[in-house]
non-reducing end alpha-L-arabinofuranosidase
Amino acid sequence: MMMQKTTWLKTICLSVMGIGFSTAMQAQTKVSLQTTQNGGTISKHIYGHFAEHLGRSIYDGFYVGEKSTIPNTAGVRNDIVAALKNLNIPNLRWPGGCFADRYHWKDGIGPKADRPSIVNTMWGGVTEDNSFGTHDFLNMCKLLGTEPYLAGNTGSGTVQELSDWVQYVNFEGKSPMSDLRVQNGQEKPWNVKFWGVGNEAWGCGGNMTPEYYVGEYRRFATFMEGKDLYKVASGANVDDYHWTETLMKGIPLGLMDGVALHHYSFPSWEKKGPAVGFSEQQYFETMKTALRMDELITKHSAIMDKYDPAKKIGLVVDEWGGWFEVEQGTNPGFLYQQNTMRDAMIAGATLNIFNNHNERVKIANLAQCVNVLQAVILTKGEKMLLSPTYHVMEMYKVHQDATRIPLTIETGDYMLGSEKLPAVSVSASVDAAGKSHISLVNIQSKKGEEITIDLKGKNFKQVNGRILTSGKVDDHNDFDHPDKIKPAAFKDAVLKDGKLTVKLPAFSVAVLELI
Ligand code: AHR
């Protein structure tokens, strides 16, 4: 057997030993868990979601209106609320995305009949009647038990407008904005902590240079006044390291709490390929883009470390996920796509990366929650389904606010032609009750992998697990077969002599619990 060595990451080395389950079983991936070390808290906010006024995310998604025959609370679907509560979603970003820099919040308050209609010029050119506005969103967050993350308009809005929004939702005492809020039926402030100061300022948020945006940020952020606000600067597009450097250099510590980063996964930006029925090449290329998240976080973090060695400022990956061609026959501006086992691979591998970068990544938001891009929920009329990505998020929720267990991994390569990717990714944590969890992803399309995990002498008594996999990598749940893909009990994990041996099938995600 030919052996090669490649260094992918700081802590990850890889070796090639391409043996599938059909041939002799041989340990290919070796993981060493430093069970006695404390890797710090994995912020639950890494498991955040995103709801933009885009396509069928809000209207005909979350929000069907009070008069709908679909069971709802104040117009928000009860089935969606129940499903998202089961994920413990920690935060929800709204109203965009690109829409945020076109959104004027005062259009969305007061009696619905009096709210002006506008055109959603960004997404599909449809009429936006503003029937879902600030109160609707913030009260929905209460229903969901999640923290709102509001994205302010620094592109087409004014400093005064954003300053007023902060005062409207957060000010306890008497002021023109809090009086207006009370007049509109909300006595108590919502106390929103997370605020985006614009979105993609380098593109749809105003096509600004980083130098120009730094000036804008400083002005807008100064007048966003209130206690305990967490202000996030519009961050880099993928590998625009100059953007991050300019922000870190130009914005004083104390005026900025987070720096954003956006990175999507696809075979290529120009040829995104279909969401279902993709080729092996398209699958491989997508996973290559998804795994690049590790390099991006490492390099952006290194820049942040120069200016903020104490790691006070969070890297906020507030848009990530798979982006493919829209489903045939749907509005191209609505970004509706199916969600397959490929999406589950993107989710599992990306969340492992975030968990392992818990020191710098403090918030992340999957794009998007309902009916848009890599959605966890799809709806059709009264029907609703949970996507494979939903199930990954549900399996991984054990890592929320848990303590990371540092680890090293040596894994084989997933090869296509002369290209290769690391076959397996892993992250691990221990929760407040003392239960340890290991999440493993094997992205190989055809090969199972045997994984041995050295537990460094910790005497665990029992291992339980669940797995998500299917027959084909483009398998998905549809409205006629909503439960085709769902987690199942995982029996191929054996605990013996302080070692765990796991047989992970091709394209699968498993989460193990050790007690
Ligand atoms: O998530 C879809 C869009 O992608 C967002 O509106 C924008 O911020 C990004 O370019």
